[in-house]
Amino acid sequence: LQWLLDNYETAEGVSLPRSTLYNHYLRHCQEHKLDPVNAASFGKLIRSIFMGLRTRRLGTRGNSKYHYYGIRVKPDSPLNRLQEDMQYMAMRQQPMQQKQ
């Protein structure tokens, strides 16, 4: 619970993929040698902490993902650095012509 409160906050007009949030949680559990709960239980936990959170399905037909709408990573959270690192690595793995 404290980890969620330390790293996320409610915010209007923003969304975050549910899978991203759960992956952040799994990484936290792995780093601290904790047993994670399953995705459904984690979703219930999120909703109990962040009241009024909505779910949206975003993306093109056939490629849509569920997002939590109304929550974001706090600006001072170390998770922001993690996301930047992941985006950088994804860019490095693309063929050169796709980057241009």
From TrEMBL:
GO terms for molecular function: DNA-binding transcription factor activity, RNA polymerase II-specific; RNA polymerase II cis-regulatory region sequence-specific DNA binding. Its main location: nucleus. PROSITE patterns: RFX_DBD. The keyword Disulfide bond does not apply. Pfam families: RFX_DNA_binding (PF02257). One of its GO terms (cellular component) is nucleus. Keywords: DNA-binding, Nucleus, Transcription, Transcription regulation. It comes from the Eukaryota. Gene3D superfamilies: Winged helix-like DNA-binding domain superfamily/Winged helix DNA-binding domain. It is found in: Nucleus. Residues 1-75 form the RFX-type winged-helix domain. This is RFX-type winged-helix domain-containing protein. It comes from Cervus elaphus hippelaphus.
